[in-house]
Amino acid sequence: MKREYTTQDRGGAQASNLQRRRLLQLMGAGGLGLMGGLPFAGRATAQEAAIAFWASATLDIGDGWSRLTEATGITPTFTDNGNDMGPVVARLAAGNANDLFDVGGFQGGAERELFRQGQIVPWDLAKIPNFAKLWPWAKDMAHLKADDGAQLGIPSVVNADSIIYRKDKLGVVDSYGVIFDPKLKGRVSMEDAWINTAVFAAMYLKESENQPIKDPGNLSVDELGLVMEFLIKHKTDGQFRTFWNGWEQGVQLVADEEVDAMTGWEPIVYEGQKRGLDVAYAAPVEGYEGWGNNTVMLRGASERGLADAAHALVNWMLDGFYGCALATSRGYIVPSETTAGYATANPAEFDPADISAKADHVASKFAGKVYWQNVRPDNFQLYEEWWQKLRNA
Fold this sequence. Notes:
The chain has helices spanning 10-26, 66-72, 85-94, 97-100, 111-116, 136-139, 167-170, 194-208, 221-236, 247-255, 266-274, 299-303, 307-317, 321-330, 337-345, 352-367, 380-392; strands at 49-55, 74-80, 103-107, 120-121, 154-166, 188-191, 240-244, 261-264, 279-281, 288-298, 370-372. With 393 residues, the chain is of the alpha/beta class. The protein folds into 2 domains: 10-158 and 291-367, D-Maltodextrin-Binding Protein, domain 2; 162-289 and 377-392, Periplasmic binding protein-like II (D-Maltodextrin-Binding Protein, domain 2). Helix 2 (66-72) links the parallel strand 1 and strand 2.
């Protein structure tokens, strides 16, 4: 999701965060921290600290962050990073992100590049005991380690994406072909980010149109040209209502009934259902786009003496409550048995059956056909150039 960033001080980031939390509370994400439950066993840090967390808006748990403060003494401020790693990397490399933020929640793929640039620093796993409780395959996800084995990212959230659609209008959708169906001209949308949209289009062309594409997440020069020309043609033909940009616009397209189908994030489905719409999430024959959102420590946190607080934040995110809160509000899963364990131990807070069902739902996606998102494919600079051509078309 490309967007223009402007220079802001830490107070500006806090103001933005307050506005976002009010919005998420209106959408039902707030209030989690007001639920009852067993008290925490004590603070994980001896000194209170404020941590600025820069991640996709769908990773925010609203008032639930108060439980972090209760457990660790850490007060977080959450700011949406827009999810698209192009602007994020640019702002880290040439902007002021390391002055403003301490911890990042980034889509996987750019960790090694950011480490080579000196923008992030490794984690000390001895200070994150809950890392040992992660699902084994999550620990082995690509991009998490530097060439020397240093741990650059913590796999905090996983899911696999597909198509949001109006079931009352379209029946059951099981292919990305619905997005390119001329009968739905002007009633479909894709995201304004190649990290998702190029992958979805490549999956469709590979699996349903038998085009010579090897890995939809890492396209060759010729494969990328094929995919982008396909998208540009459909754009100039008027196929797309818009290319949506950001969580709020994605939700609004569904809530305002502007589209009948769109590629996008599963939480948008849950939000549409909360608003009484008959929306569903497709299980496409072409497969899902798998992704991991990995937590990284920005260089600025270390420079400001906040490394211990950053470790305590990440360890708490893997401790169970955050996973339950995120599963309840978004359907995303923290890949750890602590999530189900926390729900089982605290049924007054979270429905154990619901948490287990959502974990099983996500796990079932990864048991089938999945192509992984990669925010830094081999030809990523060419991706950026092609995406600008699409925008200008």
